[in-house]
Design brief:
- The complex is a heterodimer of chains A (470) and B (206).
- Helices cover 31% and strands 16% of the residues of chain A.
- In chain A, strand 9, helix 6 and strand 10 form a beta-alpha-beta unit.
- Chain A starts with 5 loop residues before the first helix and ends in a 13-residue tail after the last helix.
- Chain B has one domain: Aconitase, domain 4 (Alpha-Beta Barrel), CATH 3.20.19.
- The chains are: A alpha/beta (470), B alpha/beta (206).
- Bound molecules: iron/sulfur cluster.
- Iron/sulfur cluster binds next to loops of chain A.
């Protein structure tokens, strides 16, 4: 048999039918649903008199709109409340399990899927959310879809898809101390651009990826979409299996052993060809900070804000100029001279327990700068409980951080957590688009350690220079 | 879905690259639970200032373009969030065709599902059109999906490529859920053979 890539294998296993010159009909193993992109899909089912084909393969949560303040109080925004209530009604009507606001497992959809063991190697996973690519860290084929496709999957448990191309992103060598998975993916996007992987599924390979924990792999895969990719994948290995063992929905006992046997085959064969290939040396990657309004506009913390003239094409120069104007930055400014007003640690990119541990390590026995308002929003209620059990909440609170309930929060600022016009934020989220965190708000994407250090100093610092041995 | 064969309309220029779906429809308008009524919020943060007054410099607010139904944009249009509210807003506002050198995948796909035709044209061709508009010309185009051709009835004529199946669905206004449901036998057979370890809620594997 012709050698195949990891992606080819998962793809081939899910093609139910394919007519020549038509998209494949792909079976979907897990469909995750949230309150913002699903109401119109359920409405579509009702209008056409259709049912949810496999409610047990469909799992819903509330995350985008939820308040991150006291959960015992009613939701004050009536429109958000209505959207959440609509999801609850739809789940009741169609028999879909729901992790609602008061469920102890509630959280950001891409945090709870893996946490519950719903995300498994070799599955196809979709969600009406572009960061579904996160789940690819397990060797699943996971991608974001639009609401029409949500409706299609609800009704058929299938999706019509044309086969994407493949790209290998190889990170060789070892990462230095203070350099994280977030820095790796920001460096990749800065290198290949926000449309560098359009139409492809990325497979991340190399020593640096192999050495990563599952949570770190999730951070990398999460931002694949920011390079334009449909999905990101990492071949499953012992790290993956160890993470999954004992999770509520993961197979148990003999079934788990049988699954592992199958999952060990999910790796790119020797001699299989990718359509594109990119290689980075881990040793060359420094902590990253974005300076612009697209995730590809990033540099190392040791660099300066670039000059528009340093970009080759007129179109690029124009968008760089516009971005700098929006961000209120002068070309040539050292990154470490940029002061911040807010710090946000959270989002499906960086709100898991290891992210909070890394940030807490930086914050410990220090105080948030008096000019900075900082907050931590755990990705799920489970992460929150775990952090509290480890005393991380105390470290953050003692330093002057706010400690919140789980949700998307200021990643997209659909709830009350929002930047004021002109406010500058060091954020561990994934998008620095204009207005993403609030109209006129200025977002710099960084790792949790870099965000924590910026909170303490009031401006960006190279976290590698801190002595973080304890 | 509204089918499309041919569309004639005015071109509205939006000469920016990487226009993301957060710009097309900002998140504060995603709380609605309907598919309609999003046009009024299209490009909201660019169209209106903080007091809600139209910004006269923004292209959609200019008399020459405000009735446009063909949007001409820079590369990587529609990147970012998967929100289908973006094509809903464009359609509701009155756009049926979007021309750009390249599109982000999810957005591109979402357009076809809603009767909007996204057309990829080479960067030079897009530049030529922008240049004509910048020089004060108003450009009207006829986009013919059957012939895969765009012309202005005045000598400008280019062909474009589109996936044959997507073209077919848009020409016919096909409901692709119905198309997939015709494969019921195959789906059921596949499901019967799924390994037990992929079976989840409400009966987690013992
Ligand atoms: S945390 Fe941000 S990026 Fe992730 S799902 Fe929520 S809104 Fe989307």
């Amino acid at each position: 048999m012709k050698p195949r890539t990891l992606f080819d294998k998962v793809w081939d296993q899910h093609v139910i039918h394919q007519e020549p010159d038509q998209p494949a009909i792909l079976y979907i193993d897990l469909h995750l649903v949230h309150e913002v992109t699903s109401p119109q899909a359920f409405e579509g089912l009702r209008l056409n008199g259709r049912k949810v084909r496999r409610p047990e393969l469909t799992v819903a949560t509330m995350d985008h709109n939820v308040p991150t303040t006291d959960r015992s109080l009613p939701v004050t925004d009536p429109v958000s409340a209505k959207q959440m209530e609509t999801l609850a009604e739809n789940c009741r009507e169609f028999g879909v399990p729901l992790y609602d606001l008061h469920n102890p497992q509630q959280g950001i959809v891409h945090v709870i899927g893996p946490e519950l063991g719903l995300t498994l190697p070799g599955k196809t996973i979709v969600c009406g959310d572009s960061h579904t690519s996160t789940h690819g860290a397990f060797g699943a084929l996971a991608f974001g879809i639009g609401t029409s496709e949500v409706e299609h999957v609800l009704a058929t448990q299938c999706l019509q898809q044309s086969k994407p191309k493949t790209m290998e992103v190889h990170i060789k060598g070892k990462l230095g101390p203070g350099v994280t998975a977030k820095d790796v993916i920001l460096a990749v996007i800065a290198k290949i651009g926000t449309d560098g992987a359009t139409g492809t599924v990325i497979e991340y390979t190399g020593e640096a990826i192999r050495n990563m924990s599952m949570e770190e792999r999730m951070t990398v895969c999460n931002m694949s979409i920011e390079a334009g990719a449909r999905a990101g994948m990492v071949a499953p290995d012992e790290t993956t299996f160890a993470y999954l063992e004992g999770r509520p929905y993961a197979p148990k006992g003999e079934a788990f052993e049988e699954a592992k046997k199958a999952w060990r085959q999910l790796r790119t064969d020797e001699g299989a060809a990718y359509d594109f290939r990119v290689e980075l040396d881990a040793a060359d990657i420094a902590p990253q900070v974005t300076w612009g309004t697209s995730p590809g506009m990033g540099v190392s913390v040791t660099d300066r804000v670039p000059h528009p003239e340093s970009f080759p094409s007129a179109t690029e120069q124009k968008s760089v100029k516009r971005a700098l104007e929006y961000m209120g930055l002068e070309p040539g400014t050292p990154i470490t001279d940029i002061h911040v007003d807010r710090v946000f640690i959270g989002s499906c990119t960086n709100s898991r327990i290891e992210d909070l541990r890394a940030a807490a390590q930086v914050v410990k026995n220090r105080r948030v700068s008096p000019n900075v308002k900082a907050m931590v929003v755990p990705g799920s209620q489970q992460v929150k409980r775990q952090a509290e059990a480890e005393g991380l909440d105390r470290i953050f609170r003692d330093a002057g951080f706010e400690w919140r309930e789980a949700g998307c929060s200021m990643c997209l600022a659909m709830n009350a957590d929002i930047l004021e016009p002109g406010e500058r934020c060091a954020s561990t989220s994934n998008r620095n688009f204009e207005g993403r965190q609030g109209r006129g708000g200025r977002t710099h994407l960084v790792s949790p350690m870099m965000a924590a250090a910026a909170a303490i100093e009031g401006h960006f610092v190279d976290v590698r220079k801190w002595n973080l041995t304890d | 879905m509204q089918p499309m064969r041919q569309h004639t309309g005015r071109v509205t220029p939006l000469d920016r690259a990487n226009v993301d779906t957060d710009q097309i429809i900002p998140k504060q308008f995603l709380k609605r639970i309907e598919r309609t009524g999003f046009g009024q919020y299209l490009f909201y943060n660019w169209r209106f200032d903080e007091q809600g007054n139209p910004d006269p410099d923004f292209e959609l607010n200019q008399d020459a373009y405000k009735d446009g139904s063909i949007l001409l944009a820079g590369s990587n249009f529609g990147c970012g969030s998967s929100r289908e509210h973006a094509p809903w807003a464009l359609l509701d506002y009155g756009f049926r065709v979007i021309i750009a050198p390249s599109f982000a995948d999810i957005f591109y796909n979402n357009c076809f599902k809603n009767g909007i035709l996204p057309v990829k044209l080479p960067e030079e061709t897009v530049r030529t059109l922008f240049a004509r508009i910048e020089s004060g010309e108003t450009v009207d185009l006829t986009v013919d999906l059957e012939a895969c051709r765009i012309d202005d009835g005045n000598g400008f004529s280019v062909s474009f490529e589109v996936d044959p199946y997507r073209r077919h669905c848009l020409l016919e206004g096909l409901d692709d859920t119905a198309v997939t449901l015709q494969q019921e036998d195959r789906i059921a057979k596949y499901e019967a053979n799924r390994p037990a370890y992929y079976r989840i809620h409400p009966e987690p594997v013992k």
